């Protein structure tokens, strides 16, 4: 074993490179006296199916979370825009031009961020893409 290295993908449990969508050839070998009882192969298929279902469920949950987080960011920008608008109205009425100018700039920044977020949302919305 001297000089041989173990591939990192075999050690890393989070790596997806070593998982195949089909079973390896050696699982289908017909071993004598083993043909009468295939319960081990049935159990293997069940485990393989559960692993695949868990991965699918994980990615569906991840998609839902990312979609929600994206919407939360846009909502935050709109909230900050509303807050800066209220401050602008207060300072414009009080004739504090310097502060009103700063507040107007902050309002413009959050308005731009909210609009850019909405545009990106529309560009990335998977419902607009044809389903294959």
Mean pLDDT: 77
| Main pleated-sheet profile | none
Assembly state (oligomeric): single chain
Structural class, by secondary structure, is mainly alpha
pLDDT < 50 stretches: 1-12, 128-132
Indicate the overall shape: rod-shaped
Question: What is the helix fraction of residues, given as a range?
Answer: 55-70%
Query: Given the structure, what is the number of helices?
Result: 3
Outline the secondary-structure elements:
Layout: H1 8-11, H2 39-93, H3 97-124
Protein traits:
132 residues; mainly alpha; 66% helix; 0% strand; rod-shaped; disordered N terminus; disordered C terminus
Would you give an account of this structure?
The protein has about 130 residues and is mainly alpha-helical. It is built from three helices and no strands. The chain has helices at about 10, 40-95, 95-125. Helix 2 (about 40-95) runs antiparallel to helix 3 (about 95-125). The longest helix is centred in the middle third of the chain and has 55 residues, at about 40-95. It is rod-shaped, with a radius of gyration of 28 Å. The protein starts with 7 loop residues before the first helix and ends in an 8-residue tail after the last helix.
